[in-house]
Amino acid sequence: MVATDDLRALREYVTAPSTGSQQQSESTVVLHVTHCNLKLQMMELRFDLHTTVRGLKEKLSTHCGTSPDAMELQLLDKGEAEPVTLQTEHRQLGFFSPYDGQTLHILDHDPHSLSAHGWLEDTSKVDKYVMSEEAYAKRENTYKSFKEQKRKEDPEWTAEKELCQRRGIPYVKPEARKAAGEDEFAGEAELLEVGQRCECAPASRRGTIRYIGKVEGLPGGHWVGVEYDEPLGKNDGSVKGKRFFKCSANYGGFVRPDKVEMGDFPAIDELDLDEL
Fold it and tell me: Do 24-118 and 187-262 fold alike per CATH?
C-alpha cells in the first residue's frame, strides 16, 4: 500500500500549475546542440539525465552524421572559462549537472565524417544525375516528343494554348492581349472630363478629376487621376517619380475609369447639421 505522504506528494504534483504546455520531468533536461562542422545550430533536444555519455553520442549521431566513436561532447557554460568535457562513456549525463538551455557542443574528430567540409549543408557539393540528350531521346512519352507531335499538327501550338483548349476557354495570343490592354477602358474614359467633380468606388470617395489617360508605371490601359477632398489617396499625383497632376500628399490617386462617376458631387461637410 502506498504511504499517505507518497499519495499527498503525487496529488500535489498532478494538481500543481504547469509552467508550460506540459510539466517537464525532473529527470530530463533541454539542451541547445551545436556542431563544429555545421554552421546552423541544431534544434533543442531533450535528454534523460540517466542516459550514459555513450548513449548520448549514439542518439546525436542520428542527427548530425558523426560516428559515436569520433565524437567528443562538451557542455558550454557562459559563466565558466573552460567547457566541461563528457569523457567517461559509462557516466550518466546527470553526473555533469546540466541545466535547461545550456549548450551541448559536438566535436567531430573524423576527417572523413559526413558532416565535414559542408557535405550536409552545401547541396552544390552533391553530384546530380544529368541525362544525356541521346538517352532522353530514346525515352517514350516525354514532354519533348509530345510537344514535337503537337507542333506537327499545329505550328503555332503552345502549352498555354493547349491548357485553354482543355479548359474550354478561348485562346488569345500574347501580342493580341497586349494590344487590347493598351486600349482597355478607353470607352469609359471618353465619358469623363478633366476638372469635373466625381465620386470614386469603393467607399464613395469624392474629388476632382485631374488627369485622364495612360500612366507609365501602372498596368496598360486608361486611368483617371483624382484629387480627393480628403487624404484618402496614395500619392501626390505622381507615379514612380513621374508627375501627372499636382496635389497634396495622400490626396491623389489613380483609378480605372469604370470606378469613376462624374457629376454634381459637393464636398462632404461632416459638420453640416442639415443632414442630421
Answer: no
